[in-house]
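At this stage, I needed to go through a protein sequence along with its fold in token form, as given directly below:
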Amino acid sequence: MTQTVQDRQAARTQIAKWRDNGLTSCLVPTMGGIHDGHLALMDRARTVADRVIVSIYVNPTQFAASEDFDSYPRELGADLTRIGHRADIVYAPANLYHPLHATQVNPAGAALGLESEFRPHFFTGVATIVLKLLNQLPTDFAIFGQKDFQQLVVVRQLVRDLDVPVEILDHPTVRGADGLALSSRNIHLSADHRAIAPQLFATLCTTAQKLQTGTRPESAVADASDLLRRSGFTSVDYLQLCNPEDLQPTEIITTNARLLAAVHLGAVRLIDNIALGDVT
């Protein structure tokens, strides 16, 4: 039976008991708004660990004042119903920051560029809250989705650089039947914008094919950005081919090279990415 806890010490005590009994555990960090993508992470966690902990916390420090912190989905009851028996513990603290909190993690490396060009606050908030969660919940594994690929690379960098004793796992992006990457923010798309949204994934796939058949990256990316605008997207923040290890821009075509994109559809911002080898 899934246990819901708000107290960090209660969660830590349970993890210690599991470890004393020879049981491994995996953390699935979320901000709620649980959808099938999150459930896939939980199912994967269950295959690698004996016990699964899901955290639910909408982290205020990764939102700018102009962003959607206030409207981000918060329905704990519905989230718990969706999670069902997939987790042994759901950690749902009311607040993870001390009233006098004054310390931040400011990552460089893979955190520079892409998202940071448009949301300069974002990875400081992400890195700080992830480190807090990994300290509070010392599991053997933690799993993140590939949909937020830059976040995944930044978290791996954080764990490596700060010697955090946890193994970071990843899971492929979960998509709807039309290719749209699942996201808690998709509920805010209007019907018209929801019909346009799958063109982001389709454009990434077409661009990957062009790159693998000899089109120069600069030309392929420019064409893709133009196509997205003509398809009805309000604006394109970025569309870039990157080295998957450090997310530096690259013109070297390999199956692991990653196309990453961020676009706006009205008031909703969508991100997506694919490895070139995902498309044949």
The chain has two domains: 3-171, 184-273.
